[in-house]
């Protein structure tokens, strides 16, 4: 595998997941399963496939379960093997990080001061070069989104690169919207972003979602940036600040994105993945027939 120009990925996982209460009272939202795979595992696998060397989890002291999940559990694997579940033990080992072999860092964001602040919390642990940021709430299936972005970055995108997808005009007030100045295939040149604009004020229909490849200068900006919306340090503000100097572009990724920070998005993801597996055909057909009796006729 060719060495990636992006060696570090940051996973901001300190949020409390209030939209999923009471489920997230004791279980971090990143560990909620899409069928049998937690959201955080999809994000980790995406980063691994992209050749990321160091993974930094910006967590919260109340969410120690995340570290327990992502790190190897020798005791559990030994118990599984003793019960004849060798294949399952191997699967868990391959999914988990080894404390000796893998480059994994956990650092804390003690206060909810915004996504920009969460990214800044990782600053002292970075490897040199541009940095990936992956929001596990945004589940993107298909070709690995962060891998596509790194390829585009290596091909000359440079500066700050954000993942984008087209949205309907009436949905622009739900997203950061890219201010597009030019286009080359699926790469969009931009001069900034507008946060949640009304449809009549949106500079484009290209919405920014939870994948970023950022020039290292972002950390200098975040360190001195005053709070923005919600009295939080906003990553969008820092990216806008650097757009005029290091440059800004958006990549229209090829995968399918599910907003798993919302209940409806999580349900869509579960149904989508279940529909790809023949094991669940009977259940899905049973439900569809009950919901639409005319289809069963």
TrEMBL record:
Pfam families: NTP_transferase. Transmembrane segments: none annotated. Residues 14-239 form the Nucleotidyl transferase domain. One of its GO terms (molecular function) is UTP:glucose-1-phosphate uridylyltransferase activity. InterPro entries: GalU_uridylyltTrfase_bac/arc, NTP_transferase_dom, Nucleotide-diphossugar_trans. Its EC number is 2.7.7.9. SUPFAM superfamilies: Nucleotide-diphospho-sugar transferases. Keywords: Nucleotidyltransferase, Transferase. The keyword Ubl conjugation does not apply. It catalyses: alpha-D-glucose 1-phosphate + UTP + H(+) = UDP-alpha-D-glucose + diphosphate. One of its GO terms (biological process) is UDP-alpha-D-glucose metabolic process. Belongs to the UDPGP type 2 family. This is UTP--glucose-1-phosphate uridylyltransferase. It comes from Yoonia rosea. The lineage of its organism: Bacteria, Pseudomonadati, Pseudomonadota, Alphaproteobacteria, Rhodobacterales.
